[in-house]
Amino acid sequence: MAEGEVNGSIDFLRAYELALEADPTWLAAQARQRADAQARAIARVGLRPNLSYSYDRARNWSDITEALPTGDASRDMTYNSYSSSFMLSQSLFNAAAGARYRVGRAQAEAGEFTEARARQALAVRVLQAYSDLLFAIDDLKLAEAHVLALDEDLRRVERFVLLGEGTRTDRAEVEAQQHLAAARVLEAQDRLRTARNGLRILIGPAPISDPASLNERCLPLVGPSEPIDMWRERLRAHNPELAAQRRMVEAAEAQVDQQRAGGLPTIALFARHRTSDSDGENLIGQHFRTKTVGVQVRVPLYSGGGVKASTTQARNMLEEARYKLDAATFELTDDLEKQFNLVEMSPRRIDAYARAASAAAERVQATRRSIVGGERTNLDALDAERQRLEALRDLARARYDYLLGWLSLRWQAGTIDDSDISRVGACFEPARS
User: Fold this and answer.
1) What pTM, to 2 d.p., does this model score?
2) Which CATH architecture is the domain 9-48+98-264+307-429 placed in?
3) Residues 6+ apart with CB under 8 A from 257
4) Could you say which of 55, 234, 258, 316 would form a disulfide bridge with 413 (CB–CB 3.0 to 4.6 Å)?
5) Residue 143's closest CA among 177, 173, 169?
6) Distance CA 161, CA 263 (A)
7) How much is the mean pLDDT over the chain?
8) Do the beta carbons of residue 405 and residue 336 sit within 8 Å?
């Protein structure tokens, strides 16, 4: 049995390990990074030596007409020809190739940061799906407990009716609540199926019938230990998404240089070895072996305005990349602040919901005692029970939200690591026999 699985149960860490192997979004991010990594090698081609070989052999039929003093003379010739050539060239100056390499390097680095972001996001997505499943289980248990409590209320009301201390209205109120509770059970079952499917999409077909429950005492219920400004600085310095966006800005800047370089000359050193035989009608029967070394200079003179248009387009794309970086910075900072506030207020929320649940339970007992004394009605008891279940449901949700916010805060700051994931994993206790 795998670690993290006890008696068929699965905990958060095991779910995360399975997601690393099965989640389509994460696997796609890895494939994308491998593809982006080739951008550097592809762009480097223009700066490296280029060696090529060409060969051709042909059968030729020529009708040759020669002007002579006595008149034109024609003859037909059939001959074989061939040529073989090696060509080695090395760029000495090519501004476009240099800029193209900077573009490829920036794209490859952006891909690495994007993969790192996807891996960090996977931990948060698994925790979200896992906590949603646990909450769905809790919600179903509370809904079923409400049904059982109403069954007991109905039996108590029926005894009161037999004793002449209750009314049919009391029984009708309980029966109406029973119908609503039964509907909530069905809704909770549907949410549970949805939550199971949501986790299964991430981890594959692994059994998740008995997920490990949350140990509410696993993390100290305190807010962030550092001020919000420090978390903002961490986001700007470490968030992989922002780092990837910065690399895309660098790539856009290099693309401007690349397009501008279309109007600059290029210089290349080349060496060629060529062998030919009968390589033309006036060279029939002649064999040549030629070795050439030289410098090739190409100067673009006019391209129909293409260089200017391409450069302007690249500048606009650079402007777009800068705006996208600003938008990502604002959006990530906003979400970081939301997670910070969530973690900061969660201890008080959890304490308040715990106190509310405890008070609601006491109110249920007190209300039932007051019904016997005639001071409260059965409707008061039903309302008290409803408030107790809502408080327990809110308490469960607040605990999961706290844990998710704790991890998400580090994710948005870009500092999440395996120790953070392991610490969260320690908060879930597998079911043991």
Assistant:
1) 0.82
2) Up-down Bundle (1.20)
3) 95, 98, 99, 102
4) 234
5) 177
6) 98
7) 87
8) no
